[in-house]
Amino acid sequence: MAHDLIVVGSGPAGSTCARKAAEIGLDVLVIEKAHHPRRKACGGGLTLRVKDSLDLDFSPVVEREQCGQNLYSPKGLLGSIPKPDVAGYTVRREDFDYFLLQKAEAAGATVLEGVRVIDVVEESDRVSVVTDGETYSAGLVIGADGVNSTVARKTGLKPRWSDDEVALCIEASVPMDPSEILRTVGDPNGTKRIFIEIYFGFIEYGYAWAFAKKSEMSLGIGGLISELDDLKGRWKTFVSFFEKTKDVQCDLSLQTAARVPTSGILEKTCTKRVMLIGDAAGIVRTTTAEGIYYAIESGKMAAEVAKDILSGTPGIDTMTYHKRVLDAFSGDLYAAPHPIFKSMSKKRRSA
Fold first, then answer.
1. Where do the structural domains in the chain lie, given as residue ranges?
2. Taking the CB of residue 225, how many other CB atoms lie within 10 A of it?
3. What CATH code is assigned to 2-350?
4. Centroid of chain to Cα 274
5. pTM, whole model, 2 decimals?
6. Which of 60, 64, 62, 92 lies closest to 254, judged by CA?
7. Which of 61, 83, 304, 330 has its CA 20 to 30 A from that of 130?
8. Which ranges in 247-311 belong to alpha helices (H)?
9. What are the tens digits of pLDDT across the range 241-293?
10. Cα Rg of the chain, angstroms
11. Are 284 and 293 spatial neighbours (Cβ–Cβ below 8 Å)?
12. Residue 189, phi then psi, degrees to nearest 5
């Protein structure tokens, strides 16, 4: 059976794209290699822009509201940046991503989980997506399968990432009593909001973090792969510092790792019938690795362009999507809010 649109991957980019495309009348198939809910190496911090970008109520999966940031160095607290109002949110990615996928399915998208894509074959009038079970075809394909994108690799849009284009992160979800979370990172004004914490100086060309949820703390560290000398050792040093500073003991049994693109939007995010969105297209803020907002926005853009292409709108093709992404994000993705992030940008420019 042929579909209008096949979306490979169901993170925030893929699920948003699938939902928006289904809502505007397209026959959408989502192919996901994992089974939701699934673990994701991510701090789970959402900026206020995510709330503005998502035209749905995601409060059921919000874990905590943010009230600002605490900034640390190995010598201790550098300073706090409190906010009088809600400054953002934290979510468990397994819950947030599953929530968005369910919304896509409710909008009419067909979802296949536990199915691995092994090839993408583009023809003049369609694209075939070959999986480990069957082959599916569509007028257009969206690659939303992350930095390790099979779609990007098989279409030649990004055969591989070099070590100076990608960060490697370790993240652990550390169980913690809610009272301990409020003691360690809570708003001293008693609002039950939390400070998200960023730790500088524990790794070159990167940073560590502590993002609180209801009953767990996301601890993580990441840096450019080309500059890593001992990630596991630096991870251990950071965790020890956190334990000593906060007077806690961390259970690191729920630990995982992931790669994050940090070099900016790909020179080519599309072929004639394929568009890459989110991390697969490198649409991540290069200086902080923030990606969820850009994933959602690029998913919406791709859905809109897909509808116009499939309906035969004059002057619209996949390059329209690429141009819209560049227009929307090029300036924002490279803005550096802190000196250490500026040094990361400088490192990439001089490479």
1. 2-350
2. 20
3. 3.50.50.60
4. 20
5. 0.94
6. 92
7. 304
8. 292-310
9. 999 999 999 999 999 999 999 999 999 999 999 999 999 999 999 888 899 99
10. 20
11. no
12. -85, 0
